[in-house]
Amino acid sequence: MSKEYYKGIDKIKFEGPGSDNPLAFKYYDPEKVVAGKTMKEHFKFAIAYWHSFCGVGSDPFGPGTQNFEWDKSPDPVQAAKDKADAAFEFISKMGFEYFCFHDYDLIKEGSNLIESEKRLNTIVEYIKEKKADSGIKLLWGTANCFSNPRYMNGAATNPNFNIVARAGAQVKLALDATIALNGENYVFWGGREGYMSLLNTDMGRELDHMAQFLTMAKDYARAQGFTGTFFIEPKPMEPMKHQYDFDSATAIGFLKEYGLEKDFKLNIEVNHATLAQHTMQHELAVAAKAGMLGSIDANRGDYQNGWDTDQFPNNIQETTEAMLVFLESRGLRGGGINFDAKIRRNSTDIEDIFYAHIGGADTFARALITADKIISSSSYSELRRKRYQTFDSGKGKDFENGKLELNDLYNIAKDSNEISLESGKQELFENIINQYI
Ligand code: XUL
Ligand code: CO
Question: Which candidate in 223, 315, 367, 427 could, as Cys together with 323 as Cys, close a disulfide (CB 3.0–4.6 Å)?
Fold first, then answer.
């Protein structure tokens, strides 16, 4: 029996909206069936190892404020085991089934590649046991190819081949760890794949290198028997001025250009969507249209600033609109909802991380229930369908089926009377959302 880190906190239970217990779910009831599936099947909630067990709240103006009990041992292997104990205790107490990691979240990087490999192998063996004991699963793994100074000019897109090779070695080890831990997916967030200045950058060559690198990683993992999905996580900026995986549309275009669209799908993050001047629901809809809505990184940004604040989700209205897209596209292709979010620097009590995840899960649950009711009981779907009814028969249908030429449109328009205006009814649609919340 390992040491208890979150003392005095029991397993979080569903108590319903009437409960005043801050350490209980009000809406997230894992076994409740909504739109034909349990909430836990819809969401596959995952804890992000990096934010919850590694990040201590430091910012550019000051050091961390969170004093992690598991982060005390000077021995990196012992410290990593203590962290794993804390992580599995927390995930079990939350009642979630999944976690996600970067390679060096699990254990501190060694002073060279071979030492890092040894450390990773050791901690992977330890986590295998923790997984078996708890039933907790790995939603996805990834490699941190952006923190180490060697990657300051990029990893797969670095202008120096030796760094590209070093990144390749790191991704190989991260894939090995993901496969050893039965990871269901593997993520590539671009990190520093992008540029600070186009003046010193050969963008075309860097994009070709990125595609080559992803193809090699995919081929390697498939040869090891990995059957999961690879996800690209779009983000428009930060840390680079321009990131190559700018948004869903850009990433889909890239994957199709290089023939990677069968193995790769997208992991869409709320705060990345808003940084790209999109809504989350827009990014989800673009991915869903391409059949590439793979997974979600749940968080939120701040309306008053322009960077990645990674706050926990709490906006029920926006999440409801996102859940409409989620349900209409029949959920995620292989992924889940990973809380890529951190508590604020001045949230320093041991319960705060529980409140954060409870609030996030409840926001998604409430939004899912509401979106399901909107789809099944309101006039929303029918109102939207009706806007397109001129394509359901006659010439409109011929147009959709590719049976018309431009001259046909000319002839149809020539023979038509003046067309009356048709309202888009945006305010009515907005009212329906609020009515059902
Ligand atoms: C960075 C970000 C990452 C990825 C994984 O903005 O979202 O944490 O999710 O590398
Ligand atoms: Co993310």
Answer: 367
CB-based contact 356:63 (threshold 8 Å): no
Ligand 2 centroid to 233 CA: how many Å? 7
Nearest to 136 by CA among 356, 336, 311, 1: 336
Report yes or no: 61 and 17 within 8 Å, Cβ to Cβ.
Answer: no
Distances (CA, A) of 87 to 6, 106, 142, 147, 150: 10, 10, 17, 22, 29
- The residue from 102, 209, 278, 357 that is catalytic is 102
- State the helix-helix crossing angle for 76-94 and 113-134, rounded to 10 degrees: 30
If we measure between CA atoms, which residue out of 174, 58, 4 comes closest to residue 105?
Answer: 174
Q: Is 51 a catalytic residue?
A: no
Catalytic residue among 105, 176, 310, 362: 105
**Beta-carbon contacts of residue 53 (< 8 Å; ≥ 6 apart):** 68, 70, 83, 86, 87, 90, 105
Task: Answer whether the bond into residue 63 is a cis peptide, omega within 30°.
Answer: no
Would you tell me how many other CB atoms lie within 10 Å of the CB of residue 86? 21
From the CB of residue 279, how many other CB atoms can be counted at a distance below 10 Å?
16
Closest-lying ligand 1 atom to the alpha carbon of residue 267: 9
3-state helix, strand, coil split of the chain in percent (to 5) is 45, 15, 40
3-class SS letters over 82-108: HHHHHHHHHHHHHCCCEEEEEHHHHCC
Residue 105 known to be catalytic: yes
Ligand nearest to the CA of 100: 1
Instruction: Output the six-digit token pair for 37.
Output: 């599936």
Note down pLDDT in tens along the chain; length 437 residues: 689 999 999 999 999 999 999 999 999 999 999 999 999 999 999 999 999 999 999 999 999 999 999 999 999 999 999 999 999 999 999 999 999 999 999 999 999 999 999 999 999 999 999 999 999 999 999 999 999 999 999 999 999 999 999 999 999 999 999 999 999 999 999 999 999 999 999 999 999 999 999 999 999 999 999 999 999 999 999 999 999 999 999 999 999 999 999 999 999 999 999 999 999 999 999 999 999 999 999 999 999 988 999 999 999 999 999 999 999 999 999 999 999 999 999 999 999 999 999 999 999 999 999 999 999 999 999 999 999 999 999 999 999 999 999 999 999 999 998 899 999 999 999 999 999 99
- Domains of the chain: residue spans and CATH: 13-376 (3.20.20.150), 381-436 (no CATH)
